[in-house]
Design brief:
This protein is of the alpha+beta class. It has 15 helices and 26 strands. The strands form six sheets. Strands 1, 2, 3, 6, 7, 9, 10 and 11 form an eight-stranded mixed beta sheet that branches.
């Protein structure tokens, strides 16, 4: 009997110890939190409750601002900078709900054992909203390394071009603001409208944003290290399946410009994910406009933008004055000889050479006439000098407009060779222009145009998009235009073959 009692006591104590350990583990697990939200087992909310859909857009907040929610898929987009060592309880920011009596929980699961691996395999966290005594609502929470922009509002008017003007609120979250070296959340009133011509009819529209203050006036914000402005562009990159070309071009030209004193910077941009009025619009470039403020122009300087092809329209319909201290007639008269290419003596030769070599490298066929180029007259030493600033370079690196449509035509673009039409006028006053072009090509080939640098630039942009998951999300909703042929590998192959083609043209040997 004594032995039986000892065995029973041992069994009871063992059972009690296991129970305490298991219960303790459950209690610890049940009290963890992520983004200020408790993490609980599925049984906590499913027991005695059933799922009931509610549209909670505008009532769920992140860092004090209405969260970016895609209503159709019940998905919340939150920027987070993740590494392999990031723990769920280290994520910055706080999720909250403003409705009285509603409660937020994260569903416990494998995400909280290995957050980095879970997220980078395209998985979402599961957010539970307890909406009543016996009901709950479920949201997917996507953690993205890209900044997220959320815009909400309604139509208020039409402008002179018949475009609908919307007015509302703007929020942006950046997991690593380069100016603060920290997480940032900004908000503003905003007005916005569709921009562009051919791309404005597509499902992913380009937008122009005008940030506003509480008094209705313009409000400048510094976003993503791109500088401070009140006017911004959201570029959907519709023509480019890779979503690399325009960012590649901007980064490359601005690198060349920063290392020279004869070039003005192109627009600059960074990738974001966009939600408007509860609809996910996918991957965009948040982009600076080229204007007087962006270029830091002086009072006497003048800036034109090429907006239309065809000399039959006349200069006033082919070019737009972005900034000028002069009246329209006087501004255009300064360019009389330039518009018809009979007198391009104002052209800064070094800038002309760099702009042409840049367009030749890209095989950017859409930037060779009046359109898709800015023309800046700088007042220097008592006279004007003209500088070219490329713009809208999506049709490049193997993409072209052929047979009345956008085409990925690798072979055609490899063999394309053409100077801008100012070339003959400039050569008439500077006969050694060909030698200058060849010399500059050789210099750039050792620096910004080296094969290693260009391929690395393209691959790094692609890696950024793939790691964010945004490229995959974008392709799920907006099918590829070119049947999967427009890949980063094909783009890098194009760069290498294009370099070889131009090396032969300019007599350069690696």
């Amino acid at each position: 009997m004594a032995n039986i009692r000892i065995c029973r006591r041992f069994f009871f104590l063992t059972f009690l110890l296991v129970f305490i350990l298991v219960s303790g583990a459950f209690i610890l697990r049940d009290n963890i939190s992520c983004l200020g939200v408790p993490v609980v087992p599925q049984s906590v909310y499913e027991k005695h409750r059933h799922y009931s859909y509610q549209n909670l857009n505008g009532t769920i907040f992140f860092n004090g601002e209405p969260a970016a929610i895609d209503v159709e898929s019940s998905t919340i987009y939150l920027p987070q900078e993740l590494s392999e060592t990031t723990r769920y309880n280290e994520l910055p920011g706080k999720l909250e709900i403003s409705l009285f009596g509603y409660r937020l929980y994260f569903n416990d699961g494998p995400a909280f054992d290995s957050l980095y691996s879970y997220v980078h395999h395209g998985n979402a966290l599961e957010l539970i909203v307890i909406t009543g005594p016996d009901t709950y609502m479920r949201y997917n929470v996507i953690l993205t390394v890209l900044p997220v922009i959320n815009i909400n509002g309604e139509a208020i008017s039409e402008d002179e071009e018949g475009r609908t003007i919307y007015s509302g609120t703007f929020q942006m979250w950046d997991s690593h603001d380069p100016e603060l070296d920290a997480y940032s959340t900004v908000s503003s009133a905003v007005q916005w409208h569709v921009r562009g011509q051919t791309t404005s009819v597509l499902s992913k529209k380009p937008w122009k944003l005008s940030l506003k203050g509480s008094n209705g006036g313009n409000k400048s914000l510094s976003l993503m290290g791109l500088g401070e402005d009140d006017d911004w562009i959201l570029n959907p990159m519709n023509a480019d399946d890779s979503r690399i070309r325009e960012k590649f071009s901007m980064d490359l030209w601005n690198d060349i410009s920063s290392n020279s004193n004869h070039n003005l910077k192109m627009s600059s941009a960074e990738y974001v994910e966009l939600v408007i009025n509860g609809q996910y619009f996918g991957l965009y470039l948040l982009q600076r406009r080229i204007d007087q403020k962006y270029l830091d122009l002086e009072d006497n300087d003048i800036l034109f933008k090429g907006i239309r092809l065809g000399e039959i329209y006349g200069p006033e319909n082919m070019y737009e004055i972005i900034y000028s201290p002069l009246d329209e007639s006087s501004s255009f008269s300064l360019m009389d000889g330039y518009w018809d290419y009979t007198d391009c003596s104002m052209s800064n030769t070094e800038n002309f050479v760099d702009a042409n070599l840049f367009l030749l490298l890209l095989s950017s066929m859409d930037n060779y006439t009046s359109k898709n180029m800015y023309y800046c007259l700088l007042w220097e030493d008592g006279e004007y000098s003209l500088y070219l600033i490329p713009w809208d370079t999506d049709l490049s690196l193997g993409l072209a407009y052929l047979d009345s449509g956008f085409r990925y035509n690798y072979d055609y673009c490899i063999d394309f060779f053409k100077y801008r039409p100012e070339y003959n006028s400039i050569k008439s006053r500077q006969p050694d222009i060909d030698s200058l072009i060849a010399q500059r090509w050789a210099q750039l080939r050792e620096e910004q145009f080296s094969e290693e640098h260009l391929v690395s630039l393209a691959q790094n942009l692609n890696r950024q998009l793939e790691l964010s998951g945004a490229l995959a999300r974008d392709r799920l909703r907006w099918p590829l235009r070119y049947g999967g042929t427009d890949t980063v590998d094909a783009l890098c192959e194009f760069i290498c073959e294009r370099l070889a083609f131009l090396d032969q043209k300019f007599g350069y040997r690696t």
